[in-house]
């Protein structure tokens, strides 16, 4: 198999709303080791559904093997995840 697998990986979820939690639930059967998430504020009740840990965006970018983005494009989120995040 070419590329990277999800098994034993850390997945970062930016925006833990309806879609972000659904993606996390879909990825669980693939053996993801740890879910990290960032949002405007911690959401412990929702995060518990996939055992996700709240972290700041810079830590999420640094520790995640894969990152998924599930937030609306607004003036506050535009440029949130840019080229400066990728080298981490």
TrEMBL record:
Alphabetized UniProt keyword annotations: Oxidoreductase
Single Gene Ontology MF annotation: hydroxypyruvate reductase (NADH) activity
Top-level lineage group: Eukaryota
InterPro entries (UniProt xref): D-isomer_2-hydroxyacid_DH (IPR050223), D-isomer_DH_CS1 (IPR029752), D-isomer_DH_NAD-bd (IPR006140), NAD(P)-bd_dom_sf (IPR036291)
GO cellular component: cytosol
Domain D-isomer specific 2-hydroxyacid dehydrogenase NAD-binding: 3-86
Gene3D superfamilies membership: NAD(P)-binding Rossmann-like Domain
UniProt key word Oxidoreductase: yes
Protein name: D-isomer specific 2-hydroxyacid dehydrogenase NAD-binding domain-containing protein
Organism, scientific name: Callorhinchus milii
């Amino acid at each position: 198999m070419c590329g990277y697998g999800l098994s034993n990986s850390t997945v970062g979820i930016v925006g833990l709303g309806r879609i972000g939690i659904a993606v996390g639930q879909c990825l669980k059967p693939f053996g993801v080791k740890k879910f990290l998430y960032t949002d405007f504020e911690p959401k412990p009740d929702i995060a518990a559904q996939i055992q996700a840990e709240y972290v700041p965006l810079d830590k999420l970018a640094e520790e995640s093997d894969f990152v998924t983005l599930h937030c609306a494009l607004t003036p506050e989120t535009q440029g949130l995840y840019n080229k400066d995040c990728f080298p981490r």
